[in-house]
Amino acid sequence: MHILVTGGAGFIGSHVVRHLLHAFPNYTITNLDKLTYAGNLANLKDVESMSNYRFVKGDITDAAFLEELFAGNRFDGVIHLAAESHVDRSISSPVEFVMSNVLGTVNLLNAARVAWEGDFEGKRFYHVSTDEVYGTLGREGMFTETTAYDPHSPYSASKASSDHFVRAFHDTYGLPVVISNCSNNYGSFQFPEKLIPLFINNIRHNKPLPVYGKGENVRDWLWVVDHARAIDVIFHKGATGETYNIGGHNEWTNIDLIHLLCRIMDRKLDRQPGTSESLITYVTDRAGHDLRYAIDASKLQRELGWVPSITFEEGLEATVDWYLSNQEWLDEVTSGAYQRYYEEMYAGR
Ligand code: NAD
Ligand code: DAU
Question: What is the β-pairing status of strands 251-253 and 218-223?
Fold first, then answer.
């Protein structure tokens, strides 16, 4: 099998590439990535010299480039993760999200359709999406695969749009697609604009911890390696045209999670209990901030047998350890443009 993974230099993509290279040494994995601020080849240093791994730098908004790439390779499958992924950035730059997430996905679907036309047998286009397309929950209930779409941020609207295009290519052209919608991921190699790595990095530097609103929003956290395992299972065993929700059944209010993280950081950094908590600063809420996400992943468990492999407590400890022992990686990705981003994003909040 030759699989094209898009966005493989990003957070989740790098874990997917690593997982596939180790689990399927007889597959060829081509990683296509534009290397935006979020894409970093250092995320794949441990596997880059494997003989079945290839990297191609390119932009999925460039249809001609994709056409050439598909003409020059016989891909059996696509696992599509490339996207702009940060909600706050989508609020300040919505058009970039339309370009990469909507146009980029349509270009990729079209390139696969043309390359595989007349011979869809054994082919698969896997679109990696998010639970944010479902909108927000009140205090009760969970998102299932049949929950109506109701996105609120430019990011989630762009992902919802891309999901619709994937289904349209299945229904219109018969493209063999499968979609998954996953909850919040955490783990190594996550760009420190997202809550967990941002707060670990800020605690390390004794910087304020900007909690949006009252910190009452709820997220459902899953270890990124378990997401990569789920993608493997769905790619190989999922039914064509189906959607699978992925989640760890692990809801936390932001403020409870932040308190837990602060306690772990005090212990790891050998600081007085309460040192990290004193950095908590309540700031202006995110616009359109969804209150609660919670995933019902029972279809995936029942039909394909996937369950998370570790508890949140184990995963969070391991994640903190990883960031503390990979300070060079953190320092590298937070140098340069990151500082400007940080000042602009949090100025006046
Ligand atoms: P990320 O921002 O860490 O990585 C995205 C990658 O895509 C980067 O390597 C970037 O360079 C690449 N990319 C962006 N635009 C591109 C373009 N136009 N052409 C080629 N490459 C491009 O994102 P992530 O958190 O790893 O998310 C990966 C995917 O999973 C996204 O589609 C996201 O919507 C989805 N997802 C993320 C989460 C989460 O918690 N992070 C949860 C559910 C679903
Ligand atoms: O649910 C899946 C989604 O999870 C993915 O599709 C997105 O790509 C991913 O970025 C993530 O979106 P969130 O907006 O939930 O993640 P983020 O880490 O940005 O924020 C998590 C929560 O923490 C959210 O309620 C906002 C809050 N927050 C975030 C930041 C960055 C803060 O309170 N302060 C902050 O500085």
Answer: antiparallel
The whole-model pTM stands at 0.98
Ligand 2 mutation target, pool 11, 86, 87, 153, most atoms within 8 A of CB: 87
Q: How many residues are recorded in the chain?
A: 349
Mutational pocket test of ligand 2: of 184, 245, 291, the residue with most ligand atoms within 8 Å of the beta carbon: 184
- Please give the number of the atom of ligand 1 that sits closest to the Cα of 190: 3
61 lines ligand 1 (CB under 6 A): yes
CA 297 to ligand 2 center in whole angstroms:
20
Instruction: Give the single-character DSSP code of 101.
Output: I
All domains in the chain, ordered by first residue: 2-186+221-246 (3.40.50.720)
Ligand 1 atom nearest the C-alpha of 14 is: 26
For the CA atoms of the chain, what is the radius of gyration? 20
Give tens-digit pLDDT for 214-265: 999 999 999 999 999 999 999 999 999 999 999 999 999 999 999 999 999 9
Residue 285 is given by DSSP the state P
Please give the pLDDT value at position 335.
Answer: 87
